[in-house]
Write a structure and sequence with these properties.
Distance between the termini: 25 Å
Number of strands: 6
Number of helices: 6
Radius of gyration: 14 Å
Length: 133
């Protein structure tokens, strides 16, 4: 099973929207590295939903329910389908992530502009621990 982080601006589409809709097509990603990560996702992979912008926090867990397919008629770009699983017990802020030694190598912290990034199992567990308080 893979672990991933997807960034979203909650004003345009956030965790509450994903829960309301029961799932969504994660499309519109127009960065080659991020699209490469989408291509590597498989059904059942687990995804942290991270609110960028003012919130700057991981807020929920989703699952990949369909693997990558072409997005927008251009083979360079792909989308996946995700469905909500559960909210985190408490949001994990960017500040808390940066302060956690187990997350110092986390892709999202090293390449912050990337909207899709992998999360290692060790990083995943550290984030869940932070969310549990």
């Amino acid at each position: 099973m893979g672990y991933w982080l997807l960034k979203s601006e909650p004003a345009s589409y956030g965790w509450a929207d994903l829960c309301r809709d029961g799932g969504t097509e994660w499309d519109g990603v127009r960065n080659a590295a991020a699209a490469g990560h989408l291509r590597r996702m498989v059904e059942g992979d687990t995804v942290l939903i991270y609110h960028s912008g003012a919130d700057k926090a991981a807020v929920g867990i989703a699952r990949v329910s369909r693997t990558a397919r072409e997005d927008g008629g251009d083979v360079r770009w792909v989308s996946v389908r995700i469905e909500p699983d559960r909210p985190l017990p408490r949001p994990v802020t960017l500040a808390a992530m940066k302060a956690e030694p187990a997350l110092e190598g986390m892709a999202m912290l090293r390449q912050s502009p990337l909207s899709v990034s992998p999360v290692s199992e060790t990083e995943w567990r550290a984030i869940l621990k932070l969310a549990d308080g």
